[in-house]
Structure formats: C-alpha cells, structure tokens
Specification:
The protein is an alpha+beta fold. It has a single domain (2-127), classed as Lipocalin (Beta Barrel). It contains 2 helices and 11 strands; from the N terminus they run H-E-E-E-E-E-E-E-E-H-E-E-E. It has helices at 2-22, 90-102; strands at residues 30-36, 39-40, 46-49, 55-58, 63-66, 68-71, 74-77, 81-82, 105-109, 112-116, 122-127. The strands form 2 sheets. Strands 1, 2, 3, 4, 5, 8, 9, 10 and 11 form a 9-stranded antiparallel β-sheet that branches. It has a two-stranded antiparallel sheet with strand order 6-7. The N and C termini lie far apart (48 Å). Mean pLDDT is 80; it is low at 2-22.
Amino acid sequence: MRLFIAALITITPLMQSAAMAANFGAPGTTWTLVELNGAPFTARATLSIDKDGRVSGQAPCNRFTSSNSITHSNFDTGPIAATRMACPDLDAEAVFFTALNAMNTVDVQGDTLILRDDADGEMMFKASE
C-alpha cells in the first residue's frame, strides 16, 4: 500500500502537468504572437508547449526553450535558453523575451492563447495553421 501511495504521489504531478499542457492545444501546437500589450507585434515569434509543459519556440532571431511550471492557469517559465544568432530584429527579440519572462497566467480560448502578467501586460498568440 505504501508503495502504491508513493507511486501515486510521484505520478500525480506528471499527470497534472500533462493535463495542463493539453489545455494549450494538442502538444506540438505552434502559437504565433500577434499582439503585445494591445499593439500588433510585427516581428515573427512563436511558442509551443509540449506534453510535459516545456516551452520552446522561435523568437524574432533565435530559437529558445524554457522549463515551465503549469498549474491551472499559472504560467511560470524558468530561465530561457536561446541560440545567439544576430539579426536585425534583436530589439524586438529583447522585448519578446522580457515580456515572456514576466507572464504568469495563461488562458486559451479556441485558437487564441493569452499570457498575462501582474502589471496588465498581455501577449496574444494565435494557433498557426
């Protein structure tokens, strides 16, 4: 019985993480940033959340990845690791990473994923086709 309880305690967070990730579309859904704080985001940036809750995507210049703690509507990225290629959109990339790192709640409504922070910041993504 104790072994069963220990296994359940170990597996439950993994099941919750997978269930929460499933709320963000099928694992592997690519979300494209369309608005940042109510203004169109003209550079291209994408975000995907895998079945384990890990976040990855393409910032305006570089690919990135981050751990993410998903519980209900909480969105909490860990340190963001990115490649280091130079391009003309590095300023937009800095804005993207700063905003993404500040986001702490997530809401998915159909083909729209919205990340928000405590200072009324908002990132609106649309599911890519």
